């Protein structure tokens, strides 16, 4: 069940001085509408995370949603977890997101408890984990911090545990990269965003979201020691990967 959302009109009027995109109160109020209209395949990814949780989350272990925003991935995991005595730890550094996430989590009863924490995901201790989710989160970290975080996650995963990393991808082939960017913009137009909104959002986010190629992700997984990994979902230049310890 998706949270109720106000329509996203943040970039609908000209902004004289464009600052960097932040997950503040204004974004939190419209986030469900924003992400559904901006990220191709987002609902499929959320559903798939639940399916993976049903397969991988083990009894007496922890599952982590790092960069949980309003808790969509957390709720999907919790709906699908069948094992007993599991815990979900949902973490975000935005107080506006955390406040609303708690409301969404508390609206539904479940045997699987959820702890929602306001913190920097780089500071979180990962332990006894059978599943860790980074759902469109890693791309907002400084590139130098990504490997370190993934190493920490790997160390905290149990053997056979799974990491899910959803990201916007860049493509090393220029023609493919430009085509998929254009298709993404077509997707936004089809969902009612104007040329002004598309342009201003892109300007606001380009300094804070620095995506990697699939090859870069796979090299990190290899170097860290994950035994199996691949892309399990992709729509245009957005997708999701799994890595199994």
From TrEMBL:
InterPro entries: CmoA, Methyltransf_25, SAM-dependent_MTases_sf. Gene3D superfamilies: Vaccinia Virus protein VP39. It holds the Pfam family Methyltransf_25. Its EC number is 2.1.3.-. Keywords: S-adenosyl-L-methionine, Transferase. S-adenosyl-L-methionine binds at residues 42, 67-69, 92-93, 120-121, 135, 202. GO terms for biological process: tRNA wobble uridine modification. It catalyses: prephenate + S-adenosyl-L-methionine = carboxy-S-adenosyl-L-methionine + 3-phenylpyruvate + H2O. GO terms for molecular function: carboxyl- or carbamoyltransferase activity; S-adenosyl-L-methionine binding. Residues 65-161 form the Methyltransferase domain. Catalyzes the conversion of S-adenosyl-L-methionine (SAM) to carboxy-S-adenosyl-L-methionine (Cx-SAM). Belongs to the class I-like SAM-binding methyltransferase superfamily. Cx-SAM synthase family. Homodimer. This is Carboxy-S-adenosyl-L-methionine synthase. It comes from Vibrio caribbeanicus ATCC BAA-2122. The lineage of its organism: Bacteria, Pseudomonadati, Pseudomonadota, Gammaproteobacteria, Vibrionales.
């Amino acid at each position: 069940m998706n949270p109720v959302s106000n329509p996203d009109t943040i970039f609908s009027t000209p902004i004289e001085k464009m600052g960097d995109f932040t997950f503040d109160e204004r974004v939190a109020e419209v986030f469900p509408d924003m992400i559904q209209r901006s990220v191709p395949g987002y609902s499929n990814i959320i559903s798939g995370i639940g399916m993976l949780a049903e397969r991988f989350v083990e009894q007496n272990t922890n599952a982590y949603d790092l960069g949980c925003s309003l808790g969509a991935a957390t709720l999907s995991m919790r709906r699908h977890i069948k094992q007993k005595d599991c815990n979900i730890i949902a973490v975000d550094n935005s107080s506006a997101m955390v406040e609303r996430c708690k409301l969404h989590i508390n609206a539904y009863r479940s045997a699987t408890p959820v702890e929602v924490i306001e913190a920097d995901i780089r500071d979180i201790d990962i332990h006894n984990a059978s599943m860790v989710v980074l759902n469109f989160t890693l791309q907002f970290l400084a590139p130098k911090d990504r490997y370190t975080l993934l190493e920490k996650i790997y160390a905290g995963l149990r053997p056979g545990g799974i990491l899910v990393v959803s990201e916007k991808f860049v493509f090393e082939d220029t023609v493919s990269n430009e085509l998929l960017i254009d298709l993404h913009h077509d997707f936004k137009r089809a969902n009612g965003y104007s040329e002004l909104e598309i342009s201003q959002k892109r300007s606001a986010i380009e300094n804070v979201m620095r995506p990697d190629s699939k090859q870069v992700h796979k090299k990190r997984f290899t170097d860290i020691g994950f035994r199996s990994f691949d892309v399990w979902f992709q729509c245009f230049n957005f997708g999701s990967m799994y890595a199994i310890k």
